[in-house]
Amino acid sequence: ELRYQASPWQRNLGYPLAMLGLLALTGISVLIVCFHVLELLLDDAAMPRGIQDASLGQVSFSIFGSFGAALQVILIFYLMVSSVVGFYSSPLFTQLLPERQDTPLTKIIGNCVSLLVLSSALPVFSRTLGITRFDLLGDFGRFNWLGNFYIVFSYNMGFAGLTTLCLVKKVSWTVRAELIRALGEEG
């Protein structure tokens, strides 16, 4: 219904630009994770351990300086939003979605706990994937499992593989559906 009620500008310009933006952010995050996997294989310093002397504001945490830091912030926000959307899209947690003007207190508490757990896991998630080296002043590098090469490597490979699989499946399914629709209209 929303697609039919949308203006032609939204349908022809807004939706494609939003889709390209999501594809670009997903592709960039997969690329960064793939480079992090290569770093893990070649250099032990790429492990997401704690930073001893974090000279905040004196040294850039990104190779590309300010642009890289801005890109890291954008990717972290993208991962946060996609985690929340993925969480509420899973069949197990769809009942937890709040309803307008009719959400019981237990459901509100469940949503608060879920969002707290997701937001607490985000710094460790982005550090383990190699998206950022910044510790967010929480010293998340103290976790013993962040020093285990096999866990970090498996986590990165799983993220890169599954995200690429989802991306290819979604794009190929959309292209296939459009081709079928185009061929069906002509024939």
TrEMBL record:
Keyword vocabulary terms for this entry: Cell membrane, Endocytosis, Endoplasmic reticulum, Membrane, Receptor, Transmembrane, Transmembrane helix, Wnt signaling pathway
TM regions (residue ranges): 12-38, 58-88, 108-125, 145-168
InterPro entries according to UniProt: LIMR, LMBR1-like_membr_prot
GO biological process, one term: Wnt signaling pathway
Cellular compartments per GO CC: endoplasmic reticulum membrane; plasma membrane
Keyword Zinc: no
Keyword Endoplasmic reticulum among record annotations: yes
Taxonomic superkingdom: Eukaryota
Topology in the lipid bilayer: Multi-pass membrane protein
Molecular function terms, GO-annotated: transmembrane signaling receptor activity
Subcellular location: Cell membrane; Endoplasmic reticulum membrane
Family note: Belongs to the LIMR family.
UniProt protein name: LMBRL protein
Organism annotation: Atlantisia rogersi
Chain's gene name: Lmbr1l_0
